[in-house]
Design goal:
alpha/beta, about 425 residues, 5-stranded mixed β-sheet, 3 domains, 5-stranded parallel β-sheet, Rossmann fold, 11 helices, about 15% strand, binds adenosine-5'-diphosphate
Length: about 425
């Protein structure tokens, strides 16, 4: 308790006040005691002075103690209050405490010890209540803040969902555009290639050296353009989940030799030796030979493109009875470890400048990555800048194809589904992933 307490006693009974005063003095409480005899005077005193405790008789001449305590509460005067009661007033005491009185004391029990005890506990209870009210208020405020933040988060989440929705829509439009454009471009490209091949035939007359050179350029550029268009078409089909593997049993070494054979002239043109090593007990695999060849051609054309001198090796080995590995290794410019991940992303090239030395769409590895996943295989990359790169593909000897019913069901779903259901399954989980 603080040094000198300011105490107010409200009682119209002079004798009772005196007994109260005596008891407090005897208790040795250091205090300034103020006395008033009715509720109105008590209010005036409480409004002008801050008291440490008020003791009041609930039977005041001008108002009932219940009215007094209610007014005290509503007037926001903060003070611990003790009701002075008489014997047999228990019921009204309960009401007064409920209305906001801090404690009560029976006039018949007033003694120095009792007074000190009640005074102490009233001040303590009052402060505990005040603290609790403060904490409650703070909790209420934090709760309101949380609700506000929650609402803000919900709003942001809705915005993100909307943006996601728009992005998906744009991405779908892009895929659709790519698929349509590349499909449309293939027809004239095939005509250009076909007619330039026909021009070489002698039955249409002999071409001069210069004419033959020009037709050859048209043919080569046409083939190159068709390859680029095919890459874009494959990519957009893979993105839309519309590219299916066509499985059959074949000799893997034959497909590898075919791919290497097609790429040999390019390697020769750069004076690169192209070596193949097949180490297989059983050369038969169940896979899509066209797609497997496409993977090899892509890896080999990269190896040739990014190698200025040295060698390119293709190795095929048995990893286990059920898995085979194909390794394409070169002595080219190499790839920095920080770029390992991004080069498998669509349209990503290490050199993204317009003036870059090596041409390409940046789709090759993204397509390979998707195809290998569809085959239930894995790709590993190891490379050192300036020394060369190694792409290793592990494949199951027998791939699992999507059943016809599952493919049909997927096609129906892809035709009819909404953007959200597609977003939930962007990687077409019906294929085994890496
Ligand atoms: P593109 O070859 O059309 O650029 P790819 O997806 O096939 O696209 O390759 C992405 C990038 O990965 C290439 O642009 C190149 O930077 C890098 N890369 C791929 N293969 C090799 C390789 N054998 N050696 C060095 N860099 C390579």
């Amino acid at each position: 308790m603080k040094q000198t307490l300011k105490i107010l006693i409200v009682d119209d009974n002079e004798v009772d006040r005196m007994a109260f005063r005596d008891a407090l003095t005897k208790a040795g409480v250091q205090m300034e005691l103020f006395e008033v005899s009715d509720g109105n005077d008590a209010f005036s005193a409480l409004s002008t002075t801050a008291y440490d405790c008020v003791f009041f008789d609930y039977r005041l001449p001008d108002q009932h103690g219940l009215t007094f305590i209610q007014q005290l509460r509503s007037s926001k005067i903060k003070v611990p209050s003790v009701v002075l009661t008489a014997q047999g007033d228990e019921q009204i005491t309960v009401q007064l405490i409920k209305a906001g009185a801090t404690d009560y004391l029976s006039k018949s029990k007033i003694s120095p010890e009792m007074l000190v005890q009640v005074l102490r506990s009233a001040i303590r209870i009052y402060w505990a209540e005040t603290q609790a009210a403060l904490v409650n208020q703070q909790l209420k405020e934090s709760h309101e803040q949380l609700i506000h933040k929650n609402q803000e988060l919900e709003r942001q989440q809705q915005q993100i969902q909307m943006q996601n929705f728009k992005l998906l829509e744009v991405s779908q439009l892009k895929s659709h555009f790519l698929a349509t454009m590349s499909h449309e471009l293939r027809t004239p490209m095939n005509a250009i290639i076909g007619f330039s091949q026909i021009l070489f035939r002698s039955k249409f007359g002999q071409l001069t050296y210069q004419q033959a050179d020009m037709v050859e350029r048209i043919l080569n550029n046409g083939k190159h353009l068709l390859m680029l268009v095919n890459e874009v078409l494959d990519f957009s089909r893979l993105e839309a989940g519309r590219l299916d593997l066509k499985g059959e049993m074949f000799d893997i070494s034959k497909v590898i030799n075919l791919a290497v054979g097609e790429m040999r002239s390019l390697a020769d043109a750069k004076n690169l030796s192209l070596l193949v090593q097949t180490d297989l007990q059983n050369t038969l695999v169940f896979n899509d030979p066209v797609r497997l060849k496409q993977i090899l051609i892509n890896l080999l054309s990269n190896a040739i493109k990014f190698t200025e001198s040295g060698q390119i090796w293709v190795e095929v080995k048995e990893l286990s009875a059920s898995r085979v590995t194909i390794v394409v290794r070169d002595t080219g410019i190499g790839i920095a470890p920080r770029d390992f991940k991004c080069i498998f992303e669509a349209f990503r090239q290490i050199d993204q400048t317009i003036t870059r030395k090596y041409p390409g769409t940046g789709l090759g590895l993204a397509i390979i990555d998707s195809l290998v996943r569809m085959m239930g295989g894995k790709i590993f990359l190891d490379s050192t800048l300036g020394s060369g790169s190694m792409f290793k593909i592990e494949l199951p000897r027998q791939i699992t194809l999507l059943s016809t019913e599952a493919a049909d069901a997927r096609d129906v779903q892809l035709d009819g589904d909404d953007i959200f259901s597609r977003a939930k399954n962007p990687h077409h989980s019906f294929f085994q992933t890496r």
